[in-house]
Amino acid sequence: MLLERSELPTLDAVSHLCGLQAQEPQEPFTGLWSRLRGFQPGALSDLLTGRQVVRTHLMRRTVHLVTAADVLAWRARHNAMLRQRVLGVYRRELAGVDLDELAAAGRDVLADGEPRSMAQLARAVADRWPEPGTRPLGEMLVAGVLPMVQLPPRGVWRQKAGVRNALVSSWLGREIDPLPTEDGSDPVGQELVRRYLAAYGPAATADVRAWSGLAGLPGAVAALRGELVTFRDERGRELLDLPDAPRPDPETPAPVRFLPAFDNAILGYDDRTRIIDDADRGLSVAGSRVVLVDGRVAATWDVEPGTESGKGAEDTVVVTPLRAFSRSERAEVAQEGEELAVFLSDGESARVRVTASP
Question: Is the bond preceding 153 in cis, omega lying within 30 degrees of 0?
Answer without folding.
Answer: yes
